[in-house]
Amino acid sequence: MRALLDQLRTQCQCCARGLDTQGVCCTVGTCCGKRLSPLTVNYVHSVLKSALQHAVREDELSRNIARNVPAGTPRPKRTEPLTTAEARQLLQAAEGHRLHALFQLALHTGPRKGELLGLRWTDLDVETGTASIRRTLQRTHSHGLSTLPTKTTSSERRITLPTTCVSSLQSHQQRQGEERAEAGESWQETGYVFVTPTGRPIDPTNLTRTFTTLLDHAGLRRIRFHDLRHNAATLLLEQGVELVVIKELLGHAHIGHRHRLRPRPTTPPARRHRHPQHRARRSCRPRADPRRRQRPATVRSHRPLTLPSTTAVTPCRSPVRTHLTGLQLCSSEWRGSTSLSLAVSVGYGGWLGENAKVPS
Fold this sequence. Notes:
The chain has 360 residues and is an alpha+beta fold. Among the domains are: 2-68, no CATH class; 84-240, Intergrase catalytic core (hpI Integrase, Chain A). It has twelve helices and eight strands. β1 (124-125) and β2 form a beta hairpin.
């Protein structure tokens, strides 16, 4: 097992699998060194360990040899999201494109690619400005392009759409009606929001090609389509939105998924110089005894927010969302008291320089 993993780490996959069919690199004696990433090697080890453990439970093997081989923890690849100016530049390049509403929705709310392609018109409520994420559209080896459940149960969620996305979806619906009239009998009614000019579902691979072409047209660097999801979270973090609110918006099961995304570094404040006598007094303080039990720090996930006297909020056991002067407030109970934290609506259009208002 250890020899197999070492071989996967060091061997060129182009030479091993004969990927060079045009005689460019490995077949002519110039090895390209196309090796597997540490994350892929770790995934192979995980699959083998799971299969052998299943054989142990079925009494096919006496022990699982893969459990004794450490695979190591691969370092996650750090993403570089688009800046605010680059996000505006991308949306300007997408104006007039038939999938402009899709790219705008991806940058503002951060859904996954399959969640966007699996969105139906019945999931949208234009009057209230909300969208329900209930399914994904993916291509599998056995069934081809098919509808699957969401990644986790937390991914099934209902999100609030900004006013710009609502207007873009309305324009997209009108354009889709014109395409339906032009296609005539060749139109295939599927009920999806984002379809091909003949009404069929969009393949995720074709969406990736369209996105790459759009990046080249806008003069931006190459990124993955999934990086737009990270980009939405990072832009909201830069505006001071709570992590728990971003977790609910993106449909993550745990809040720790967003800890690796931090706002871009800014200029640090000037350090205050203290008097040398004060520094000496501080160094002479007795240190805490490490054997003494320390009290754990209490972490509150919500930042208290004082409402105006004219606003009445009734505490309750279930999470409550209310709209007030263009800001969305999230109410949740914490140790018997109701704490309010600023939510995402101000961030939907703020980074684009627009007046973001939540539909009533």
